[in-house]
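User: Let's play a game. I give you a shape written as tokens, and you guess the letters that built it. Ready? Here's round one.
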């Protein structure tokens, strides 16, 4: 078994330097040495780039969210290679090396400073393309910036992947940061919809549920198993799988992009695995503000329609849209108007639904 595999860890930052630094601080304490980190700053306006560089150069970072971060990595330097990223008028990506800082060491952080917010999907794609072209990596790990990792989280993922060539992607046991003994996800299950109950199993829609959600971790999910999908905050993929199945679909921009990716990987004949020995803690909804955030409502609705368009026949897709316009629509009226008393959320649902039907890809401001 080759345990000398080189890993590229990809972390996307958008106005969240405090979370990103805490994530990096946990990452640089793990028991796996052969990895580089690519941090993509997605057009932040909160001084994220400078804050992250200062941390890597060993300077104490003030304002981090974790109390335990008082013990900073002062004096332990990380080599920083900073690139600016933009697209030309013809849509061709360009990387420009603008700064080289830190000590010359085995530990490197590639900081891609983007000219604007490209979204979660394309932001990760930018890092993946950069790493595929410039780094000699065997595996790629997508890691949310609002996570903290266990010191042994990476080794079990690599060990299993090395011994199971059918593994297209692998995910960790994800626990709540605020409630460290409670599970957020032990893999992801596909929720049945009304058509599945009627026996129409071919109708697919982006409707998933986290296995073990909000349960206390008592070891009930301590078995490795194949799962229908994985939560996007921590996913390990082999290079050849990415080359065979492609990158994230940038049209999703935000939400359900990893569901689409995992679906496509499974369609290519690979399996998805949940590896419980690998543990991370996630600041659930730290960046989005939760399911009643207008932007979350919009993108989840629109991207569910995108997913349905992409992975169903025209007849199945038409049935799903009818279901959305009648049943789902009525549930949203009850939830957003009568229970939450937030009419704007209903408007965002309508906008997401019709933008999805019309295939309108746009970033919204809320």
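Assistant: Ready! My guess for every position:
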């Amino acid at each position: 078994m080759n345990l000398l595999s080189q890993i590229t860890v990809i972390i996307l930052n958008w106005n969240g330097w405090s979370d990103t630094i805490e994530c990096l601080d946990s990452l640089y304490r793990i028991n796996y040495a052969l990895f580089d980190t690519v941090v993509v700053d997605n057009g932040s306006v909160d001084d994220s780039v400078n804050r992250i560089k200062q941390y890597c150069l060993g300077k104490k970072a003030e304002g981090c969210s974790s109390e335990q971060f008082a013990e900073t990595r002062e004096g332990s330097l990380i080599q920083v290679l900073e690139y600016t990223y933009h697209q030309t008028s013809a849509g061709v990506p360009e990387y420009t090396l603008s700064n080289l800082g830190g000590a010359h060491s085995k530990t490197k952080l590639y900081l891609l400073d983007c000219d604007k917010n490209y979204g979660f999907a394309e932001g990760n794609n930018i890092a993946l393309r950069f790493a595929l072209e410039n780094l000699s990596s065997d595996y790629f790990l997508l890691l949310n910036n609002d996570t903290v990792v266990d010191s042994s989280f990476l080794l079990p993922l690599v060990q299993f992947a090395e011994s199971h060539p059918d593994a297209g992607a692998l995910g960790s046991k994800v626990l709540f940061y605020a409630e460290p003994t409670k599970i957020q996800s032990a893999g992801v299950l596909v929720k049945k919809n009304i058509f599945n109950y009627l026996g129409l199993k071919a109708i697919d829609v982006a409707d998933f549920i986290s296995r073990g959600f909000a349960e206390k971790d008592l070891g009930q999910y301590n078995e490795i198993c194949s799962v229908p999908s994985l939560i996007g905050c921590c996913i390990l993929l082999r290079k050849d799988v990415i080359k065979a199945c492609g990158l994230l679909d940038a049209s999703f921009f935000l939400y359900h992009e990893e569901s689409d990716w995992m679906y496509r990987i499974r369609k290519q004949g690979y399996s998805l695995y949940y590896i419980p020995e690998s543990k991370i803690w996630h600041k659930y909804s730290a960046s989005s503000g939760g399911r009643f955030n207008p932007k979350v409502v919009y993108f989840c609705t629109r991207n569910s329609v995108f997913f349905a368009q992409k992975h169903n026949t025209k007849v199945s897709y038409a049935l799903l849209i009818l279901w959305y316009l009648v049943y789902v629509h009525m549930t949203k009226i009850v939830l957003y108007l009568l229970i939450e008393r937030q009419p704007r959320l209903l408007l965002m649902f309508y906008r997401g639904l019709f933008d999805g039907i019309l295939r309108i890809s746009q970033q919204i401001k809320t």
